[in-house]
Amino acid sequence: MPSLADSLAALSEHSKQISEACSHNTEPHGPFVQVQLYTSLFSLIRDASHKEVRLFKFVGEEGNGGRRIERRDGPLVTPLKKANKAEGVENLEAMLRAALKLVEDYGPMPRARSHIKDLIRTHDQHVDRMMELEELIELARQPRKVAPPPTSSPKGKAKVDIDEIIRAEEEALKALENSVASLRIQSRRSVSPEKVSPIAKAPRISVAVHTPGKTPTSSHQISNSLVSATPRRGAQPSRFSPLKLLTTPKVQKGRKSIFGRAGIRAPSGSAYTIPQIAPAVEEEEEGNETIRLASREEPPSPKPSPFKTPAKSSKVDYESQFVREGINKIQSTMPELLKDVDDPDAAIQQLGLLSESNPDAPPSPTSSASAPSQTTRLTPQTIMLAQFYLILLQSPDGTAVMNEVKEALTSIAQSRGWTDGPDLSTKVIYQSMAKKCTKIDRRGGNGGRISFAI
């Protein structure tokens, strides 16, 4: 089998002969006599570069067949393609770094490069989390100094059995239940209507007095209950009672008549004045001595601030044809963004206002059950969609590089405190493509160019 050098020498000789034959004045007989080989053919032959050579490994002759074969020894050069079929990767970080180096050296592959960077970022987060968990485990494994139990009991005293402790607790619970039952019976007898005197059945009107520093609220009905009937003990802490905050003006003694008690009128020169307080609610039922606190009227809600129209953007060419066509495309495919808009100026102002807004808080279960259901909510994805359309409208020719748009949207999301910036920017771009509002031209580098689907 001739070598490559012999083949090149023969090719050079044949080209010289063809060149000499074409240079003669007389036309020789035979076909293809005017064919001449390009003399700079050898300039197209070059040695393989380093990044091309290291992808393959030449083994040489194998066996007695005399065939030359090429094969790879060891792991795959591109392990990400068949990572699930591999037996296991010991050093995951080294594999990711090697994959990133391969993508950067072998050729422009932006999708694979961004995917590998996301995997490296996720791997670093997992490693940091594992280190934190290992530190917590080490702290938990360290022995703690436990104070020895007090040994004040004499040696001759026998140890208390657990069954005896449980039995004593059960007896104490039974005694407590019996005392509670007797107190319930006493409370029922004390509030029975048969023993209430006719004088006590007269309705009383009590006046609630404001306490400094306290907000008056309407309290529940206070009657003789188990808590009020329980006797105080020295070991129990003092409990809070709303009756301590209530005081009523003392009534002066006087002779009672059909017009009321006599002698209660205060002198004209008295300095004591009753404060103007809202009257307490009078109960209709007889014998109900409930005390109610007057509720304070809530102040009126402040009026909403007047709406301010955003300033006209100087980066958008309002007279351009693609700007008008792009706004018409947004109105036809995304009507929830631009509502009741007639001219491009108002549309761009509405997009700018929407891009600077804050997302609505998620509704709580109680508010969602009571309030009427809202048709649309302002989400971070809607705000980023308005930012995306503003970027396209501000471009001079109506197109933008996809990677630059992604980086711009990601930086905007991170500046506003949204952690899922890369995912949110990708969702916004492909949501607009799904609505057939924009399109992507994959030709060229940097992920292609985005423009309106006009």
UniProtKB/TrEMBL annotation:
Q: Which UniProt keywords apply?
A: Coiled coil
Q: Where is the composition biased (Polar residues)?
A: 214-228
State the coiled-coil residue ranges: 116-186
The residue ranges flagged as biased composition, category Low complexity, are 366-376
Residues of the region (Disordered) are: 209-240, 279-316, 355-376
- What this protein is called in its record is Uncharacterized protein
Q: Which organism does this record belong to?
A: Kockovaella imperatae
